[in-house]
């Protein structure tokens, strides 16, 4: 049994090893007891369910591109069950940091989230083109050929 005990401790990863080392001596009596304590400590089976109020906490981060925020916002709001379409749209506009885009979207706000995205993406693409940050553009090769005309 002592060999199995020592071999068991070598198989543990960081968080499990920290938990194991924090246990008092003789507190675990057998395998069933170990299994029950591990499950109660490490079990994350309950999935946290976000409510519709979580939408108002999704904000564009400092330095985060608008395109990245749109992607993150869409992913986060898809996890919220029963979210009303108006809350999803208003939460998006509320979370934006780009003042010009907020003003543009606020005038004649679309009635659907899809419509809101169809109105948002041309603005994002126009800004990327204006600042030469188009993700699909091959600017490096283009600039090299212009620098070395032959």
UniProtKB/TrEMBL annotation:
InterPro entries: Retrotrans_gag_dom. The keyword Lyase does not apply. Residues 130-143 have a biased composition (Basic and acidic residues). Residues 130-150 are annotated as: Disordered. Pfam families: Retrotrans_gag. Keywords: Nucleotidyltransferase, RNA-directed DNA polymerase, Transferase. One of its GO terms (molecular function) is RNA-directed DNA polymerase activity. Residues 7-97 form the Retrotransposon gag domain. This is Reverse transcriptase domain-containing protein. It comes from Tanacetum coccineum. The lineage of its organism: Eukaryota, Viridiplantae, Streptophyta, Embryophyta, Tracheophyta.
């Amino acid at each position: 049994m002592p060999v199995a005990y020592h071999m068991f401790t070598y198989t543990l990863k960081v968080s499990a090893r920290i938990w194991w080392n924090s246990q008092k001596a003789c507190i675990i009596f057998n395998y069933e007891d170990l299994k029950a304590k591990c499950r109660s400590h490490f079990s994350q089976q309950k999935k946290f369910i976000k409510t519709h109020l979580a939408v108002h906490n999704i904000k564009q981060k400092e330095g985060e591109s608008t395109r990245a925020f749109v992607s993150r916002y869409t992913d986060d709001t898809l996890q919220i069950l029963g979210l009303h379409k108006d809350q999803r749209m208003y939460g998006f506009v509320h979370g934006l940091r780009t003042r010009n885009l907020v003003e543009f979207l606020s005038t004649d706000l679309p009635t659907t989230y899809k419509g809101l995205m169809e109105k948002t993406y041309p603005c994002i693409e126009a800004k990327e083109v204006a600042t030469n940050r188009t993700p699909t553009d091959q600017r490096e090769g283009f600039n090299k050929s212009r620098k070395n005309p032959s």
